Fold this sequence. Notes:
The protein is of the alpha+beta class. It is 52% helix and 13% strand.
Amino acid sequence: MAEPTRRAIIERLGRGPATVSEVAKPFDMTLAAVVQHLRVLEECGLIRTEKVGRVRTCRLEPGGLEALAAWIAARRTPVERQLDRLGEVLAGDGRPEGTCQPRQTDEQP
């Protein structure tokens, strides 16, 4: 999903099924290049295609984005914990919990 063309294809198919030609129309690339993007999306389980006669129709795969959402969530939780901890440290005295303050002494240098 890091590839902008693939994101745009997913956006388009979110509005409903489309033929390969309809999907390819807004892109400044060959039909073969668009077909390669569609193949990657299909191999990932995000879309499916169906050929009837000479027309190949693409549609979003129900549940295909769930695997992507789970992958994102698995990485999001640890990052959110780290940011929460950073917020706690910044809201406090700036020192991580468990660190000692410098000892005050009556001695003069």
